[in-house]
Sequence to fold (266 residues):
Amino acid sequence: MLGAIIGDIVGSPFEFTRHKSKSFDLFSPASSFTDDTVCLVGVADALLRDVSVAECLRGWCRRYPHPVGGYGARFREWVFSDTMGPYNSKGNGAAMRVAPVGHLAKDPSQAVSLAWHVTAITHDHPDAMNGAAATAFAIWMARSGAKPQEIRGKIESDYGFDLSRSVDQIRATYEYSELCLETVPEALVCALTAIDFEDALRNAVSLGGDADTLAAIAGGVAEPIFGIPKGIEEEALSRLDSDILAVLHRLGAAIAPNEADAANGT
Fold:
């Protein structure tokens, strides 16, 4: 999940700038975690403690009522309501916050079912449910050792996304969008065609779209494929609050036994 948070931090200064180049400082004084990180941590905390995702996510977002970037209008209404249910959103927030599922799921079917579970509380439109499931499934496949080309083929066949374009081809015509259908395929291409973790983030920001969310999705998938360079990890961790770091630590401890079992073939 740290890969998604790093993507959020790296993309944060470019969220509304329509930046169309891979040339930029990976971190600057303006680089900060945003609402994307708050939502990622809220989902992870709920799954780790096996509590209501809606209640936990609301709690985290109320703890950070004015994050960098800010919450979407409908989501903010949901956060500060005790009774509001899902509102048929097809937004990319569904895929942005789902990375913990890909790390905690024990098999592909659980990756999909958990993705639906954490998404349906707000983003219950089929496009959002599909985008979240595809993202979680891609992360699960990468953690299980699948190669990028294998992941691309599986996502295309199972979820109907076109992942055949290059980053350069996407960038040439891409416009800002907060829709899952216009964010998830592009972010997956950024991760699955990258040469390393940093390149995945630069790909995502360079599209000139919803940069922090594109990079969060791409970073979440790129992390298990490439790993995270130590210098990038340390810089990102230094920008996180202690309560967020505590959830990341608990997530790492929960993931470790799963990774050991996979290494042992059990």
The longest helix spans residues 242-263. Confidence is low (pLDDT under 50) at residues 260-266.
